[in-house]
Glycosyltransferase (Pyrococcus kukulkanii), 364 residues
Amino acid sequence: MKVLILSGVKWDSIWSHAHELSRILSEEGYSVIFLDPPEVTTGTQPHLKILSKRPRGNVKVIENKSVKKLGPAFLLIYEVTAIKTILKENPDLIIFYGVLPGFATFSLAKLLRKKVIFMYVDDHRELLTNKIAKIFASIAIPIFIGWANGVISTAKVLHEESMRNKRAFYIPNGINIRDFLHTKRIPRTVKNVYFIGTLGKWIRLEDFITLADAGFNVFVIGHGEKFEELKNATKNRRNITLYGYLDRKAALNEISEKCDIGIIPFLKNKLTDAISPIKLFEFVALNKPVLATNTIELESFKGIILVYSTTDELKKNALFLKANPKLIKEIVKKNRKILKHYDWGSHLKKRILGAIRIIAGEEI
């Protein structure tokens, strides 16, 4: 079976759901084609930049031309390349990660009676900043949900919306445990707090400063539109270190060896309520306790993480862990048992392959 994945993240960029799915399908014997979005050479979108060369394995990556900035040229190049790929490769199944770009390609796929899956991993209406693009996404998302052969959502609020489709599945994010077989230090003392991810508009920068003021060493791995703002706000603080981008292996090794607490400092809004963050499962796989804001999706992991809504609650939770380091061992032990349900190498793999089998009508 030939599968075309229309990703919103470049292959040689940050690790994403589309990368994990490509790996799973290719290892299961599917012929996988991964359509790279155009590289954006300016701006602060790390997911659209070439950051580190990643092995292709059995995945065929179709690269796109680069553009200077996000705009009409980006959309046009992506849609044209996607349409050409469908006509040339004749895939049996097409998996969409976005609606803009993607709408023209989706329309063609339905006209050609291709099997289509809408991978609903972000609320694109909230993620986009352009007013016209937001309006378009508000119109396109219901069309994708209604006309796709099936929808797979990574967050509960997205799944609730997608249930108009008869083949709607909720499958949260996760990690492949085999990527985390290196040394995983269990913290005995608590002094180093780490963040890993994109510093997008959804990040609460004040949480980093709150922890630094409470005496913790704060380390931030990642880049994004808020990087410069954070850099300017913390330039005179010795206990806040900004790494910028690190490739995934280096970042995970750094966290494994030096991190005592992981933090997910999301603003609480419609966008973050619909995010199932990979970083949560990466921290848990590396034996780290996690502090996270109380978004709807993260609230469902309350038994795994310590949630907070205010900076006072964040400080209280962090100081509680610092005063009770033995508790961390108990948290890690409990989380190890829970983590197996979020492993792309076993449990999640079975769930997503089962969903694809039902949607595509193919035996796996």
